[in-house]
Specification:
This protein has about 220 residues and is an alpha/beta fold. The protein folds into two domains: about 1-120, Response regulator (Rossmann fold, 3-Layer(aba) Sandwich); about 125-220, Arc Repressor Mutant, subunit A (Orthogonal Bundle), CATH 1.10.10.10. The chain is built from eight helices and 13 strands. The strands form four sheets. Strands 2-1-3-6-7 form a five-stranded parallel beta sheet, sandwiched between helices.
């Protein structure tokens, strides 16, 4: 998954980014609302972690503005305010959940998973299709009864395809979802990850089809 973190406390931001990247996620970090707006305008995100008190304004104004423009990316508000009215206000403006500072990072990760499951209409993260069993949270993949070990980006690439079967992903779109803005990415890197994932899926009914000039698509035989 690709997350946007909007947080001006550098120590907290570094801790969140480190924790999320260890779990295989890609995280872009903005310290100001202006930067956050630029990220949202140019990138695709599965989830936004949004602080309230920022150097150039109130995160709730950012949330309200984007919800008014049909921006439907899930948002979890990070707030030091413990008043019930503050939490209710954030939810009424369109937040999907909130976490009160200080928080346990394991709880934050669990809330992220819960919000993403609700948005996808699922009660579990596990996926069974075409002869594979895949749990993106645990990082487990079983192909035709055999356990397969995936590297982080291979895991997230498979998750991306499984969440949108039949959808065409260009190389640029895949690079945007698998890497942060600070990463130096070549088209060859995407081809390498596609090649590895194809080998992992070979015994199953799933295949990654190349569409010349367009990109890649996950298909199922039969």
């Amino acid at each position: 998954m690709k997350f946007l973190l909007v947080e001006d406390n550098k120590d907290l931001a570094n801790a969140i980014v480190s924790r999320m990247e260890m779990s295989g996620h890609v995280v872009d970090h903005a310290e100001k609302l202006e930067d956050a707006s630029d990220y949202v305008a140019t990138g695709d995100y599965d989830l936004i972690l949004l602080d309230i008190m920022l150097p150039d304004g109130d995160g709730r104004a950012f949330l309200q503005k984007h919800r008014a423009s049909d921006f439907d990316t899930p948002v979890i508000v990070l707030t030091a305010r413990s008043q019930v009215s503050d939490r209710i206000g954030s939810l009424d403006l369109g937040a999907d959940d909130y976490v009160t500072k200080p928080f346990d990072h394991a709880e934050l990760e669990a809330r992220c998973r819960a919000v993403l499951r609700r948005r996808a209409g699922n009660t579990t993260t596990a996926i069974e299709v075409g002869g594979i069993e895949f749990d993106p949270v645990a990082g487990h993949l079983i192909v035709c009864g055999n356990a397969v070990t995936l590297r982080n980006r291979e895991l997230r690439l498979l998750e991306l395809f499984l969440n949108a079967p039949g959808k065409i992903f260009s190389k640029n779109k895949l690079a945007d979802r698998l890497f942060s803005y600070d990463d130096d990415v070549s088209e060859n890197a995407i081809e390498v990850y596609i090649g590895r994932l194809r080998k992992h899926l070979q015994p199953s009914a799933l295949r990654i089809t190349t569409l010349r000039g367009l990109g890649y698509r996950l298909d199922q035989d039969g």
